Amino acid sequence: MKKSGKYSFGMGDRFGHQGSAQLAAIIEAGKKGIEITPVWNKSNREHMIIGTEPGDVRKEADEVTRKAGFNKPYFVDADHINMDNVDRFIESSDFFTIDVASYIGKLAGEELIRNFVTGSSKYTGELKIQGIKPYPVVTDSQITNIAKKYLFAAQKAGEIYRKIEAVKGKDNFVAEVSMDEVPVPQTPVELFFILKMLGEEKIPAQTIAPKFSGRFNKGVDYVGDPLKFAAEFEADLMVIDMAVKEFGLPANLKMSVHSGSDKFAIYPYIGSIVKKHNKGLHLKTAGTTWLEEVIGLAESGGDALAFVKEVYAKALEKTEELCAPYADVIDINISALPSKDEVSGWNSSKFAAALRHVPGNPDYNPNMRQLIHVGYKLAAMKMDEFFRLLDANEKTVSQCVYENMYNRHICRLFDIK
Ligand SMILES: [Zn+2]
Predict the structure, then answer these.
(1) What is the whole-number distance in angstroms between the Cα of residue 354 and the centre of ligand 1?
(2) d(CA 61, CA 246)
């Protein structure tokens, strides 16, 4: 069976130029004793906006690993696919994030719901999940509600899984089921029964991505109570442990955190809880590599700085349009965005500092960072110019990408000093 390893990192590289720098961060972690499997992910939405094909990500991953002599497993993730768009990903991907968010809340057949509830009767009363205290108390009507909300989605996940399996063959890919892009988080008890459903669908899921409490906005820090998150995360790990034993799911089933990148406030908790229980982890970091490209170009000065200033000026004009597809995962305070005129007077370090995610730096502006994060379309519209500048300033840009991935993400998460 293709396995995603104990630790894996989902990395986005929207424009396909930074795979080597990302891989260098993974290799450096390996030297420090933390083996991480790189997974390059790109969603259908990103492909549509940029005009790339899933095969392009495969090409990049194969190329950068070969160049680096990296002979460990790596994957190409069909990120957040569903029944409507899975086809174009099947050939080139070997990791599939099966997204069932849009099916949640749709009703499965009445009889199927009844059967699920009957088949779950042994779990009513105190649900004795090792490591969770006090044990949650579960009722029939609660299981009915969970089945009404999630059973249809689990069946859809099964359908999508089988569609992929029919083409690729059973053991030739990693399956993840995700339901993080929804408004309401799943409780540990819900997660338990969802995993039962996935077991019944015989989906050999190696990773599961629930929605956690708190805001996971793209490219900026966690908004919420880190301690509450930690308790929920730990309970979910215990749920996975029991579900593996009860429902015939793969023994290496692990938690997938769709972090949206940069959740610095909770990384230390995630790292220490995973270590405490000797569990695996998939951490998806989203396409913030694009932000590092902008920061690197800003630092390079000259026409590169002028280019990113222009991107920002355009983003200000098109704020509404750029934010619309990401409405649930960004929170931009428009009044805190610096004006075009103000930014036009900035030098390299001022522009870079506004975007670079260094908490506590008074120049850091999370609103501007989020706007640029969703503004990659503007660079896509001037692709030739953008690529010329990336190539001309490659050293500076790839250093930014590397430092971001290694120092700010990997070291924080795994407590590497
Ligand atoms: Zn996600």
Answers:
(1) 26
(2) 36
